[in-house]
Amino acid sequence: MALDVSTFDLNAIGPDFIENPHPVLHRLRQQSPVHRNADGSVFLTRFDDCMAVYRSRDMLSDKTEAFGEKFGQCPLQKHHTTSLIFNDPPYHTVVRKLISGAFTPRKLAEFEPLIDKIVDRLLDRVEDLGELDLIEDFAKVLPTEIISFMLGIPEEYRARLRGYSLAILGALDPVVPAERLAEGNRAVEEFGEILGDLIDHRRRNREGAHEGEVLESLIFGEHEGRRLTQEELIQNCIFLLNAGHETTTSFVGNSVGLLMDNPDQHRMLLDDPDLIGPAVEEFLRVESPLQIGNRLAGEDIELSTGVLPRGSYIHTSIAAANRDPEVFPDPDRVDITRRPNRHIAFITGIHVCLGASLARVEGKIALGKFVRRFPRLAANGPRTRVPLARFRGYATLPVRVR
User: Fold this and answer.
1) CA distances from residue 337 to 94, 157, 273, 298 in whole angstroms, order as listed
2) pLDDT one-digit tens code per residue, 63-122
3) Is residue 359 packed enough to be buried (19+ CB in 10 Å), middle (13-18) or exposed (0-12)?
4) Residue 186: CB partners within 8 Å, gap ≥ 6?
5) CA–CA gap between residue 240 and residue 203 (Å, rounded)
6) Closest C-alpha to 320, from 51, 45, 6
7) How many CB atoms lie within 10 A of CB 180?
8) CA distance 286 to 255
């Protein structure tokens, strides 16, 4: 029996959708590609519609009013209305230029040997374990180490980072229980205090930065005489944690899960390690760590089924767009030789992911080395998903590597 999506409401989804959203997303794309939720917002599932929204300068990201209604005056509201992602030009333009100084080609060149060393050290640990939870013992530790180097975070705080990231990002889901809001607020406060102390210390000790650290660039970088304020520094460092931590953890876990579920693709990658580049792109397409984006229509916008009026609140399904058969032949099949691969896992337009190049480097190094070193990778028990709709990843992923 065909799925009936006429009553689908993004604000009332359950665990079945989180476990596997794709049957519902496919049906929505066919029957109701510009789907209206009970609250009046719309949910877009076609690639071309999502691209039209992301490319339009009339689509707004500022969430000051929406987050005021959702969170009230609290640390989560301050964070999400100060950080880069939920703002529009001219503020977005200035802050993006200031932060982009931390992601120059020179900085990326510094990161590669650093990532190499981190991955090799973690893989030694994986080999010693033999049987492990890939998320706990590898996927979450990798971005923790990298971001800790970038922000100069001392060893004693690093174990807390994924908890902070999940708590803050979890508050962005369409429906958020009170206890999750409380966890998110605590995470912003606690991590903000740690970052404030680190920023003050680096200001006083400018020459103390180690290899790969970008905190100095964020503190002292200027654009047209403008520097980030203390509050902007704190909230955008939290943003960098969230943007690079949970998404990288999820990407690594999702990719390994896809390799175990598709042994033919696993064998192909073992036989031809040069396929790691297109493999990374395909894994990003098939299981995008970021599943849903949002925009507010500042002007009318033409979509596949007609004109969406100014003032419409829009949810873009990145997951659905990346499996649109009009763009990706046989979209549910994993094909690590797929070319071209026009996925929008990093979004596009003026809000394209600032760390996309770094994320690709991390993915190629981490997955490439993992696959070569552990060709006998196998599942070792049931997996569990992170219980979030906006972000897709594993909470646990038991594997055996020898």
Assistant:
1) 39, 40, 12, 39
2) 888 888 889 999 999 998 998 888 888 888 888 888 887 777 888 888 899 999 999 999
3) buried
4) 167
5) 19
6) 45
7) 17
8) 9
Residue 45 and residue 48: Cα distance in Å, rounded? Answer: 9
Using CA atoms, how far apart are residues 285 and 345, in angstroms rounded to an integer? 6
Q: Give the model confidence (pLDDT) of 152-172 as tens digits.
A: 898 899 889 888 988 998 888
Decide if 118 contacts 145 (C-beta within 8 A).
Answer: yes
Say which residues have a Cβ less than 8 Å from residue 36's Cβ, sequence separation at least 6: 42, 43
Q: What is the DSSP letter of 88?
A: -
Determine contact, residues 67/184, Cβ cutoff 8 Å. Answer: no
Both tokens assigned to 158 = 């690093």
Per-residue pLDDT at 223: 84
Q: What is the DSSP letter of 309?
A: P
Cβ atoms of 259 and 377 closer than 8 Å = yes
* Identity at 145, one-letter amino acid code: E
The DSSP code sequence of 183-240 is: HHHHHHHHHHHHHHHHHHHHHH-GGG--TT--HHHHHH--BTTB---HHHHHHHHHHH
CB atoms near residue 345 (< 10 Å):
24
205: number of Cβ within 10 Å: 10
| Distance (Å, whole) CA 9 – CA 29 | 14
d(C-alpha 293, C-alpha 295), whole Å:
7
The Cα–Cα gap between 38 and 261 comes to 36
How many angstroms separate the CA atoms of 6 and 35, rounded? Answer: 9
pTM of the model: 0.91
